[in-house]
Amino acid sequence: MSRVGKAPITIPDGLSVEISDDMIKVSGKQGELTQQIPEGIDIQVEDSVITVERADDSRQQRSLHGLARALVNNMVEGVSNGFMKELNIVGVGYRAQAKGTNALELALGFSHPVQVEAPEGVTFDVPEPTIIKVSGIDKQLVGQVAADIRALKKPEPYKGKGIRYVDEYVIRKAGKAAK
Residues 43-89: pLDDT tens digits? Predict the structure, then answer.
């Protein structure tokens, strides 16, 4: 039995969970998310607890059991609290500027500024020119947008310049040895 899959999910107050055929819909104060339920996975809502069960012990069902529970848990967490990824820009002249809540203009040492548009459901916040906060209710989307921004200028190992996650540690290499 999957340790992740068998753990129940408690539904906070103010959230509504609807299950139809092969879709689950979670609505809350932050918004609304829907997810398709894999075949053979059964989701039940009783009182204020969601349980995820599988049809049999086949390899496919075992692998989908924990995944389905994690996805539903991320939906519940997202519509109740939301998710946020924080990025740090390191480098002389490297900076970010907000263009509203859904666009960024980044100066990353290129000959031109880089424009980044947020997809629907994701917002940007730039409290300082070197810090970008990506937030939204969909964990997968927030993580993907943050990874796409980081990929514009990955941290390099010699000086550490680039875009990195706030809690990321960049392993530094020694430069050329002087004579």
Answer: 999 989 999 999 898 999 988 999 999 999 999 999 999 999 999 99
9-80 CATH choice from 3.90.930.12, 3.10.20.580, 3.40.50.12780, 3.40.50.410: 3.90.930.12
- The pLDDT of 142-161, averaged and rounded, is 95
What's the CA gap between 149 and 134, in Å, rounded? 10
Q: Does the fold of domain 83-165 match that of domain 9-80?
A: yes
- Cα separation, 169 vs 176, in Å, equals 22
Global pTM value: 0.89
- Look up tokens 């548009």; give the residue: 117
d(CA 13, CA 11): 7
* E-state strands within the chain: 9-10, 16-20, 23-27, 32-36, 41-46, 49-54, 83-90, 95-98, 103-107, 114-117, 122-128, 131-136, 162-165
